[in-house]
């Protein structure tokens, strides 16, 4: 019950934004989408508005990458892609360094964010509450994609099994994170009868890199993290892998979903999608940063929210997560 209240609170915190004054409830199919959206084609994401006056065609496109690590690092990593996006769309492009998943969702919901990469766990909230339309994901050239949730501990510490977490301090990232909170919480409660703040103490680090460094530096006994983040940190010598040991690794989840706001001018939205799929990664900051992942992330591939986020929605449903927006 405690976990369910935490999940419900997380959904409300992330989605508890006021509707813009112009937003009107429409009489249309929408499933779990917020009342201001329609889903006439049944793909689970918001349709573009049918009223041309509700479409937006901004002079400057604002882009935000999921706030899992240092924004200053990722501003440089994304620069060549953002230059490419500007050329393909004929728009100025601005990088928006968000500090939390909730702030990123709020920015798109309020119309201040046009193109974004939302992390795995916050995709459903972004889709249902902010009108996010995911269409791409990073993958290897042969189409392989995904990451795993790992629970890590100090390499020289006494913890060997998940059962050993009882009474320990376990770090999560944020309540909207799939690998940083939702998936490990569901696992620990359902398979090991370990409930947060009853059987172990919890801390929220805010980001995966903070959790990883916190374990390495003995601030936390254990942490639930996305191993793709840890792989990149090891590749750039941000953490010593010899100080960390994994005691659990999950099945694979989809990675960050990239997409645009539902109410962009359709021609502009099409140019944005094209920019992702025709971007040449060779020699760019994206290639240097993400090619070290396992599997390597070296191209953008098409995805659908209905198919690729099904497992995440199932975890949310099992934990009674609501996508209700206020």
TrEMBL record:
The keyword Signal applies. SUPFAM superfamilies: Periplasmic binding protein-like II. It comes from the Bacteria. One of its GO terms (biological process) is transmembrane transport. One of its GO terms (cellular component) is ATP-binding cassette (ABC) transporter complex. Residues 1-23 form the signal peptide. Pfam families: Phosphonate-bd. Keywords: Signal. Belongs to the phosphate/phosphite/phosphonate binding protein family. This is Phosphonate transport system substrate-binding protein.
